[in-house]
Amino acid sequence: MESDELLINMGPVHPSTHGVLRFKLRMDGESIRECTPVLGHLHRGTEKIGEMKTYLQFIPYTDRLDYISAFPNNYAFVKAVEELAGIEVPLRAEYIRVLTMELNRIVNHLVSIGSLLMDLGAATMIMWGFRERENALQLFEMLCGARMTFNYIKPGGVREDIPDGFMPKLNEFLKDMEKRIDDYEQLINGNEIFHMRMKNIGVISAKDAVNYGWTGPTLRGSGVDYDLRKYEPYSIYPDLDFKVCVRNEGDSFARFIVRMDEMRESLHILRQVVDNMPASKEISSAKYGIAPMTGTPTAVSSYFPRIFTPPPGEVYSRIEAPKGELGFYVVSDGTTKPYRVKIRSPSFCNLTAIPSLVTGLKIPDLIAAFGTIDVVLGDVDR
Q1: Which of 182, 295, 324, 373 has the CA that lies 20 to 30 A from 224?
Q2: Does the pLDDT at position 284 exceed 50?
Q3: Closest CA to 60 of 159, 147, 151, 156
Q4: Quick check: bond before 12 cis, omega within 30?
Q5: What rounded mean pLDDT belongs to the chain?
């Protein structure tokens, strides 16, 4: 350090750094000359745990990665297991999976935008966002009995079919959210202070965003038209009509707007899922001479034995999670437990650009730029 510089430790503190993340800042007056993220405070060894559990036992641990949007975590790992073992999934189960993931995408963006505004000093948006989030969590509770960590998606399908009364409440939510997003835009987009705090702050070019490994809304905010649901489609996404939300400015405001647009697209996807959901056709367990259990085929699950040993092999399976590309690399040695599990988490990869993103900015600008990356520390340290 030079004599006129100051070293400041920012965090770990839950507001502004979103959990146990620390920034080492080398300051030149009020300007950031160098920013070094310090990770590992939340490290839980999730990948090694995955190698010590059976394939079914590990699914609840995936919920605890990005706990704001746990359904996509479940699905990403289960998708890898299904590709590894060649498991077919009933069509109704695929529709239910997409329903849960797109509903969870809306929940993720509500928390992201609300937290961003709270970090910038505005409390109204997080109260509004949590109001709608509560309605979505009640739908999750109807579906599987849990609100944040679900263990609902399993190899071969989902654990339970949609309960009675779920679809009418979902339709109410979709109708309400349309008006709510308009309210959010009226509250936020017309605010001069918000524009001053966000526009031309934390700018990153499309080339740099790609080189840093950015994915998801952060990448699309820099003008890169890339969404795995569209360009490497999986599940029923090839049959759905939706657009990839892109902004070209590459600043904090663009990343915020992408998430607002994506909530509307998720509503559009959910309406299609509701309208085209295949009818439920229960398969009697008496046909198999056994009581209902994990291995019993139903309308929403194909046969999956409790003692599961996939053939030896390896697979890397990835999906478009709300924060970006979420991938699971799984190696099987033919036993009941994975030989290797490696997780490509979007929060960790998107965090890598922070040092170059905030150099030359002020500390309040760091808060704004970091908030638009939408990081959850459970997804960073794993």
Answers
A1: 182
A2: no
A3: 151
A4: yes
A5: 91
> What are 154's strand-pairing partners?
157
Domains, the chain, in order of start with CATH, read: 6-277+295-381 (1.10.645.10)
CA proximity to 298, closest of 162, 197, 186, 135: 162
- The region of weakest confidence among 8-12, 74-78, 360-364 is 8-12
Closest to 139 measured CA to CA, from 100, 177, 178, 175? 100
Q: Record the tokens describing residue 63, joined without a space.
A: 């919920």
By DSSP bridging, strand 313-321 and strand 31-38 are unpaired
The Cα–Cα gap between 49 and 289 comes to 36
What is the radius of gyration, based on Cα positions, of the chain? 21
79 closest CA partner among 246, 316, 382: 316
> Is the predicted pLDDT of residue 42 greater than 60, yes or no?
yes
Q: How far apart are CA 301 and CA 293, in angstroms?
A: 11
Is 282's pLDDT higher than 60?
A: no
Q: CA dist 196 to 117, 130, 368, Å?
A: 13, 25, 11
Distance CA 143, CA 161 (A): 8
